[in-house]
Predict the 3D structure of the following.
Amino acid sequence: MWKEDVKPVLKEMRYSLHMIRQSPLTMIGIGIFLGIILVAIFAPYIAPYDPNEINPPALLQPPSQQHFFGTDEAGRDIFSRIVYGSRISLKAGFTITIIAMIVGSIIGIISAYVGGVLDSILMRIADIFLSFPWIVMAMAITAVLGRGITNTVIALSIVWWPIYARLIRSQALSIREMPYIEAIKALGASRLRRIFIHIFPNCMAPVLVQASLDVGGAIMWCAALSFIGLGAQPPAPEWGAMITIGSHYLRESWWYATFPGIMILVVVLGFNLLGDGLRDILDPNLRR
């Protein structure tokens, strides 16, 4: 009996792996994702120098064998700072996405299942957040809370949750009308059990796709807030903050701002490709 239950799962896994192998762009996205994760984990072993080590004789040196990506205005190795900066960017991106996903999913599914006045109130609140440009609202919240990467994460989490609330509400509204939900209700299942055991798990596929796309977006917006001075503060090796300072030396030291910018581009592209691949795997219409 156990083997019969496992066979469909194994079949789905094999088909998913087949779809991944058939998509070169998805493979590239997975490679970038795994690569940046490994860089962040093994940063002390990859970086040849301390990211905050000041070396006055090596001010603004171009890329060389000693300094792969050159040095900054304090003689610090840019390659080492980018490697350690991956920890800051990934931590911020995942934290923002997870908080927004949890808060938005809970609000969305409660709104869909309870309905009525509560649904209207929650969705109007979400509409208020969605009516403002994200970056403007995040800037305002960060300005109130104070500069720093922690406050940037809080600000972006606050403005990000309505996306998930809207997404999971639309999924839950269709699922709650399914015959099997009515059957479970007739069997005496409680409201909480119906919501969190039978409805919520079936809403997760599009949420996971959205989350994989949003990690890259969150990293980009964190860098944007750091670029304008509201996010990570020097000497933290955050990519957006490095671009800010490097822009002052762009003519004579092009490498300073260029390499952190390339890293942001590559990481965001990787997460977008990964999200597209997950969509192809989890979307039942595309699997037919």
